[in-house]
Design a protein that fits this description.
Nucleotidyltransferase, domain 5, Ubiquitin-like (UB roll), 44 strands, 4 domains, 23% helix, single chain, five-stranded mixed β-sheet, alpha+beta, six-stranded mixed β-sheet, 14 helices
Amino acid sequence: MEKKLLFALDIGTRSVVGLVGEQTAAGIKVLCAERQEHTTRAMLDGQIHDVPEVAKVLARVTARLTDKVGELKKVSVAAAGRALCTLRAGAEIDCGGRGALTGDDERALELAAIQTAQHQLATTKAVADPTGYYCVGYSVVRFTLDGTAMKSLVGQRGKSAAIEVIATFLPRQVIDSLQAAIETVGLEMATLTLEPIAAINVLIPPTMRHLNLTLVDVGAGTSDVAITRDGSVIGYGMVPFAGDEVTEAVSQAYLLDFKVAEMLKRRLGDARKKVQFTDVLGVSHKLVAREIVERISPVVTDLAQAIAAQILALNSVPPQAVLLVGGGSLTPGLPESLAAALDIAPSRVAIRRPDTVDSLLDIPAELVAPDGVTPLGILRLAGGRSLTFVQVTLNGQPLRLFNLGKLTVADALLVAGIDVRSLHGRPGLGFTVTINGQKRFLPGSMGQPGYILVNGAEASFGDSLAEGDIVKVEKGKNGSSPRPAVGDLCPVPAPFTVIIDNELMTAGPLITVNGKAATAETSLADRDQVVCRQPATLAELLTLAGRPTDSREYRYIVNGGERTFVRSPEYMVNGVRCGPAAPVNDNDIIVTLTAASPTLADLLGLDAEAEEAYIVLFNGGNCRVPLRRWSITVAGKPATPADAVRPGSYIDYSCYEIQPMVSDVLLAAEFDPRSLPAGSRVGILVNGEAAEFTTPVKNGDKVDVAIGKII
């Protein structure tokens, strides 16, 4: 029977660790391990910056392992949590009537939850460009069956099963650079996970996850964080600071080459030991390790503060304990500084080594170290249910999809950031216009559908995809919105023919859009207000004929201040006097009347009929006696309200109230005693009583004047 070999690579910022294990009934037996450090800084902060240089290291490690176990083709790897994005997602299935749940049912729920997380990433603003992120791993938070929390669903029966997971996503360039380096040495990526997921599976098994624990994998470029509580992993995080910052501090403090500074840092474990080194100037130094540790302690404190801030952001409160792994965890003073930053006892922060790991057998002595946790975790996950890749081509571009079971065209479109709705071709937007007060809806044109081809054959969203499939997607074409002109929507009336001041004229129909002059060719848009009709009034007709009915303005100086008076023009239409608002018809004869200068009554608003007055019965007839009296002068000369006044005149005007007397009644009745013949006798009666010219009168009084001869 052929051995089932598992190959894992921990591609770190400082070194590459390769492991080969054999899957047995008792677990994974570790057959061999190899380690190779980078000769240059080809990786920074967990990101490959020099793919060919990293590929050389991978080739050396792979070659040495191949010499021991034979050909290796597929490899499992882990990515550091650089620019990590985590999302919580869930899924639910109706399991009533289907019997006991199986492992496949549980797996299907997990994959459904990951697809939900992918959809959340694609449709929310969790990251700027969702298409630039890959799902690199997930952890189950909880299973529930009919609302009850379960550790596992296998063998259970119920009506509804649900799951909640934490899915982790990394930028595409992180994964693509890993893939490129692996492919350069002729390997194929079998599974991919996240470094803290790998580490937590080694040191914090499910039986310990009821405790609020934090695992920190301090590497060279990044410090990855994972937290457990209430029986599950509750979050993952990343700090872009780690051992390289400490190495850089040593290099800066003592003028050392980075590689020399790294070697010096590793020799600082014994504070009493003296270490010797030579700086870039060729000067030799021999110092007690404690002195160097004190010199770099501010940088160690900063690193601890950054890690503590990430822990508190994920956990809200200090955890019960912190487990440190990774080569950077051996930095002198880091556990104590981290305990102080979290305000927990120093005994609750410990550096851990993988002495024994469930389901891993024959762990080599060189891996029983803090930096052996992650590679062992990658190997352990390689034999389990990790995410694998399926590569397809979409519109000529390679696309890697995580194998979530039954991959479909819809999954490929989601990862590529193609909105499935864009394949249908939306109808063009319609709009509404109002024509002569009547609303009218104008629909847009229908869109043209797109198409999907898989390996040259027509396909649909639900069709399955396999390794190497070629997918071509042509988006639908959206319909267009209508662009009608005025003349397309309403008949344009014939122009009017009229005679204006003895001149035959043609006036076109009245056409406006949103109150502005328009033509039959004017294009319309949504909510336009259109008028297209014959002119209804004389003002509209004259405007169309080029004779606007502008009013004339007169200016005067009244009591020292400027005053204007506006007079609208007047016309004769078919011999009838009228104003601009008069109706008109085709073939009308129109004459413009010369406007007379305004009178003082017009200018000053003196309307005799509207003034308050007493009604007195004078010699048997009604007589209006005003209660106010005016004093008007024009250019210093007395004037009456009926007098016309030229523009620019200086006018003085005053008005005062009076108590009417008989003399006012005679004045209102235009009775002038001075016009009587000489020797005439005048008798005045008010309500039958004898009266004088100065006798007051009231509203409704009866005034009689009798004229006789003197004897």
